Amino acid sequence: MVTPQLTEDAVISALREVKYPGMSRDLVSFGMIKNTRVEGTTVYLELQIPTEDAAVIAKVQASVREALGRVPGIGELHIQAAPRQAPQEAASGPAPLPGVRRIIAVASGKGGVGKSTVAVNLALALAQSGAAVGLLDADIYGPNVPRMLGEPGRPKAHEGKIVPLVRYGLNVISVGYLLGDQSPIIWRGPLVAQALKQLLHEVHWGQLDYLVVDLPPGTGDTQLTLVQSVPLTGGVIVTTPSAVALMDAERGLKMFREARVPILGIVENMSYFICPHCQGETDIFSRGGGRQVSESLGVPFLGEIPLNPAIREGGDTGAPVVVAKPESAEALVFRNVAERVRLAAEAAVEAMPQMIIR
Ligand SMILES: Nc1ncnc2c1ncn2[C@@H]1O[C@H](COP(=O)(O)OP(=O)(O)OP(=O)(O)O)[C@@H](O)[C@H]1O
Ligand SMILES: [Mg+2]
């Protein structure tokens, strides 16, 4: 009998069956399996586990050996198990925001995929579920949140800190509110970093369950400053179903992974079109890529948001669809995404208890 050739995919899919002790999620989706290598019948892998508890490490190793023992064709197994360095304990020293329990970044590798739309509606949907929510527009060059949430305004200062504006129950800060319509804003990297740090640390955020951060596109100064400045609960990656956008989403995802920020999941935006006349669904950009990418990268899939004029109008007129048409199918989609984000955030906190205020 010929034994099928052993592949990395076979190893990873076996490891997807191994749950982290006490959790409903598996080691792969938590990003705890690193540097998997198959040489002939020998498997090498590294376990990065967010604990220094030797008993837990031993338990995980035993489960990994057991799961891989069932994969045909495995000879030797070399596991290197290192306790994961406490996330983001870099010398630059991220500091929590007092009173803010979870900080969620909304990112994408590519521009124009709907990050701001998702960030705004996600924040509003979380607030509708009863949470206290803030929204930070971290797009210093091209802030869109003021337009998306309607009427401009000028935040005031109190005891040396900025007081956020309140829009639809959200505490909101954007450089757009602070500078008005002076665009385009041309700032050099260090100034962008400084501005973002101020928007994070020099604002009276109040007691918040969630602070949603709307990032500019790509993986540049802002993203780096954010991961170095505050302990993020996790990142949400927005993509469209087109192949190019998906490749960029993968890049965004890697950035968070390298910074040891948990990935809460991928949202596929502009996923399909619902005809307003016949209600039929058309997959304009070939739907399903977001789900495939999340499966192949082992991160949760958070949902598909349709391409819909009501979503664009909501953004352009300052009345986002979640609050303007709360009964619509689109609002329901955003509420479902918000619920999955909430669950993923709680799972991330469970997996990395040392970094986050409980
Ligand atoms: N699901 C959708 N249906 C219809 N229009 C949408 C949808 N998502 C976003 N849009 C529209 O697409 C445009 C770009 O969206 P948005 O500004 O949210 O993207 P972004 O990723 O934040 O862009 P940038 O990279 O410039 O920050 C906006 O006009 C928005 O209203
Ligand atoms: Mg944007």
TrEMBL record:
Alphabetical UniProt keywords: ATP-binding, Hydrolase, Iron, Iron-sulfur, Metal-binding, Nucleotide-binding
Pfam families (alphabetical): FeS_assembly_P, ParA
Record keyword Transferase present: no
Binding site for ATP: G109, K110, G111, G112, V113, G114, K115, S116
GO MF: 4 iron, 4 sulfur cluster binding; ATP binding; ATP hydrolysis activity; ATP-dependent FeS chaperone activity; metal ion binding
Keyword Iron-sulfur: yes
Gene Ontology BP terms: iron-sulfur cluster assembly
Cited PANTHER family: IRON-SULFUR PROTEIN NUBPL
Stated role: Binds and transfers iron-sulfur (Fe-S) clusters to target apoproteins. Can hydrolyze ATP.
Name this polypeptide is given: Iron-sulfur cluster carrier protein
Organism encoding this protein: Candidatus Methylomirabilis lanthanidiphila
